[in-house]
Amino acid sequence: MFSEELRTQAAPIMTAIHDHAFVRGIADGYVPREALIFYVEQDFQYLSEFIKIYANAITKLTDRNEMKFFADSIDFILNSEIHPHHVFCEVAGVEYERLQHATPTPKAYLYESHMYRAADTGSLLNILAAFQACPWTYNEIAKKQVREKANTNDNPFKSWIDFYDNADDDSEVSLSDKIFEWIDRLAENATTQQRQQAKQFFLKSCELEWQFWEQAYHQEDWRFKDVLNQANTL
Ligand SMILES: Cc1ncc(CO)c(N)n1
């Protein structure tokens, strides 16, 4: 199965994500305030781009069920995925509304551009492969932390963990499993070269997920951020 190959090859990246200080911090109930704020600022922008890319993907579809999948995903980001952001804001003691105006950092910009590049190929397999790192890695993080019983009542991130553990709780099959099934169906009719290209999109997205935690943890920004900000006000 193609999706099994994807998971196996991404395993070292997934392990590094589980072990990342930010992700461990969620399990342990402590993440530095600056890291939480930086994450929410960047993730807010990232998810807005995601909505646009999903909307764009709909234009490549003819099947109503497939359209519904992307429409539901947009709805999920707009109406549900604000919850985990609120959890981080509450722990950091900042208002969410204050964190919605950031300039995407180099790594976030790279990840967003990578998604657009996948969408530009016009191949649904590439688009799904590039997107899949997003629900897959978060669901894996949450499932592992639930197995480790990290979601205790005294963990301030309990409801973040529970959210991504049950991100799709109206069904037995998780959202990321459904996407892997869809990827497998498309891969059956793809050439070896097309599968390789999709794999590159998936694996790079997995690394970019790791990079996203990393840049937030260390607040890695543009070296000349003041130049960018100044140019905005002129
Ligand atoms: C960067 C990133 N990846 C995945 C998710 C989960 O949807 C998220 N909120 N942000």
TrEMBL record:
One of its GO terms (cellular component) is cytosol. It catalyses: thiamine + H2O = 5-(2-hydroxyethyl)-4-methylthiazole + 4-amino-5-hydroxymethyl-2-methylpyrimidine + H(+); 4-amino-5-aminomethyl-2-methylpyrimidine + H2O = 4-amino-5-hydroxymethyl-2-methylpyrimidine + NH4(+). Gene3D superfamilies: Heme oxygenase-like. SUPFAM superfamilies: Heme oxygenase-like. Its EC number is 3.5.99.2. InterPro entries: Haem_Oase-like_multi-hlx, Thiaminase-2/PQQC, Thiaminase_II, Thiamine_Salvage_TenA. Keywords: Hydrolase, Thiamine biosynthesis. Residues 9-217 form the Thiaminase-2/PQQC domain. One of its GO terms (molecular function) is thiaminase activity. One of its GO terms (biological process) is thiamine diphosphate biosynthetic process. Pathway: Cofactor biosynthesis; thiamine diphosphate biosynthesis. PANTHER family: BIFUNCTIONAL TH2 PROTEIN, SI:CH1073-67J19.1-RELATED. Homotetramer. Belongs to the TenA family. Catalyzes an amino-pyrimidine hydrolysis reaction at the C5' of the pyrimidine moiety of thiamine compounds, a reaction that is part of a thiamine salvage pathway. This is Aminopyrimidine aminohydrolase.
